[in-house]
Amino acid sequence: MQFSSPVPSSEALAFLDGKMTLPTDLRTWALNKLSPELRERLAFSAGVTKAELVDGMYSSVRQIVEGTTDRATMRLKLKQTLQGMGYQPSQGERGGLKDLSSDRRLNLILDTNVAQAQSYAWNEAAQQPALLDAYPAQEFLRVEARNDERKTWPARWDKARADTMMQGATASSSGRMVALKNHPIWSALSRFGTPYEPFDFNSGMGVEDVSRDEAVALGVMGKTEKVKPEHRGLNNGLQTTPQIGNDALRKALESTGLGTFDAGGVFRLKGEAA
Q1: Cα separation of 7 and 128, whole Å?
Q2: Does residue 155 carry a pLDDT above 80?
Q3: Most CB atoms within 10 A, among 82, 91, 152, 213?
Q4: Buried b or exposed e, range 233-266, using 16+ CB within 10 angstroms
């Protein structure tokens, strides 16, 4: 789903406000081992161990979602924060994704998190029975051009369909990738394990609504079939007071066996020195 302007909805802001700051030295490969439910509740960026920097990143995301600023302004502010902290990228990493001060890394952080908050809100709004009845399906397609477009999406779609449930979703060979809303294919398709955009970093892929008549014609549902609403909820059982919620999140993180919290509150990969 494309957003022509910021979506300052209560759901998008609540999504961001419900997160616990997680300074961590875990890289992307390790963070991917956490459950989607945990990742939805955490504010983090791979390899960022300074809580004040993580807070600054998510404060920037929140302001963009509110519509009170733009990406360029927040990117500059984060660069200034990093400069004030004396940050210097490692030799050979300058300008790349591991360089926290690079446009590439900061754009990725801001764009991904803004899109996740907005899409979470739209996904929740779409669960209204009347909307699900009128537009019970959605199509997976390119919504933004890329210089180097991934060609693997049809194969990823078919694998996600085979791994979950073929009923209620078309095969890519049909020429269109369409599935019912709340079909498990959406979470299986996503790099992040969530049923809403983005489905991968900087992919340019998204969804558009498909009407009931069109969904029936495509064979993904019967004429009288209904799609049951599914509200994710912010915390899947972890939403309580902030103190209790954070304690539950810390225990859930340590129970994964990936790492432990050090004395400074940084979640470190097991076996890594502080």
Answers
A1: 18
A2: yes
A3: 82
A4: ebbeebeeeeeebbebbbebbeeeebbeeeeeeb
When pLDDT is averaged across residues 81-89 and rounded to a whole number, the result is 96
pTM of the model: 0.90
**How far is residue 218's CA from residue 257's CA, in Å, rounded to a whole number?**
45
Distance of CA 182 to the CA centre of its chain: 16
Neighbour count for residue 6 (Cβ, 10 Å): 18
Taking only the tens place, the pLDDT of each residue in 31-69 is 999 999 999 999 999 999 999 999 999 999 999 999 999
**Hunting for tokens 């432990």 — which residue is that?**
260
Nearest to 83 by CA among 49, 44, 53, 51: 53
Return the closest-CA partner of residue 62 out of 77, 79, 74, 50: 74
Taken in order 242, 200, 35, 182, the sign of the CA dihedral is positive
- In tens, the pLDDT along 91-104 reads 899 999 999 999 99
In angstroms, the CA 270 to CA 197 distance is 31
